[in-house]
Design brief:
The protein is an alpha+beta fold. Helices cover about 25% and strands about 35% of the residues. The chain has 5 helices and 14 strands. Strand 3 and strand 4 form a beta hairpin.
Length: about 220
Amino acid sequence: MLKPQVITVEASDRPKGKSALKQMRADKLVPAVAYGPKLKKNLHVTIPELELEKVLAANKKTLIKLVHGKKEYHTLVQMVEYHPVTDRPLHVDLFAMEEKTPVTIEIPIRLTGTPAGVTEGGRLYQPLRRIMVQCLPKDIPAEIVLDIADLKIGDTIDVESIDVEGVEPLRASFRTIAVIRPPKGGLDEILGLDEEEDEKDEEGAEEAEGAEAESASEEESDS
């Protein structure tokens, strides 16, 4: 299992006042707040925008080692507020992890291998590209990799196929991660693979997952 990349970020105390905030953003600094079970009170700091962008642009799970004075905190990005026009990050919430406290985190899913069904003319459809999981900080994977080389037309791979030590998926085991559809105009109806219905289901599931993630984040921040 590939471990997440960890980017070290130097944090400075956040100045107060509107003019200070304006100058801070002009200097390419982003206000941040860190919280978690190891912190007696929230830590209000600024971090370099460039380093934060590296984390946000990564296609694999990436963590931040926040260095503030002589202290270091291993953190997760919990929430980012963006400028509505420039799309620059305006503020970021960081969760400071504690080694014995499980975290709820979204992990990307990557498929490997060329499905047998695709070489026969089938079409690969992946409705689930990331998933919320719960695990200890030491068990956080950079991504979840699934081999789909054996899938034939009509076959699916589901959440129950995820088998990563120490990682518990928070989606129903029957949720489809990927399916091999028949060729266009083929056996969709016979196999009951209605793409439009699947996409509607997925949209609903994504909304539900987003609500679950938000709830979990709030619980962690309150703990």
